[in-house]
Amino acid sequence: MILIHFEMSISFYREHINCHPTAAVSDAQTSSANFEEFSVSVADINDVRELKISIEVSGNKTQKIFDDVFEKMVAAAQPIPGFRRVKGGKTPDIPKDILLEVLGPFNVYRKVIKQIINSTIGEYVEKVRLVVSNDLRVEQSFEDLEASFEAGEKFSFDAVIQLEK
Fold first, then answer.
1. Where do the Trigger factor ribosome-binding bacterial domain residues begin and end (predicted)?
2. Residue 3 predicted with pLDDT over 50
C-alpha cells in the first residue's frame, strides 16, 4: 500500500465551507452515507483522530468531472498541429482520442482523479460538517487509481482524513 498525499484538497474547501465549531466524532461514525452522486463508508476512527473512509463515486459524476477537466485542458493547450483554430479562438472539432493523446493520458487522468477525490471529500466534509485538517491521504497508489478509472463508470478509493480537535 502506497500512500498519496493530496494536501491541496481539503484546504481549498475549508476556505469556502463554514465548518461548524466541532462535529462530534460520533456523528461521523455512521457506517455509511449515501449522497446524490457518491456514497461513503466509514471504516474506522483511530486514537489519533484519523477518519478512514471508503468512497464510491457514481459514473455520472466521474463523466462530468472528466468532461470539465478535459475541456479546460484543451482550451489551455497550444494549437494542435494540423488543425486551425476557427474564428473566435475556438478549437475545431478534433476527435477526443487525438486530443487525449496530444495532452497526454497520464496528465489528463491525474488531474481528473485529483479533482474527483478533492470534490468528493470536500463535499462529504461539508455535508457531514466535520472539522478537518489540511491533511488527506489516499491509500491506493496513483497507478492503481488510474488503472481502475474509466470516465462514466463508478470509481472507488479509500482515504484517511485527519480530524481537528
1. 41-162
2. no
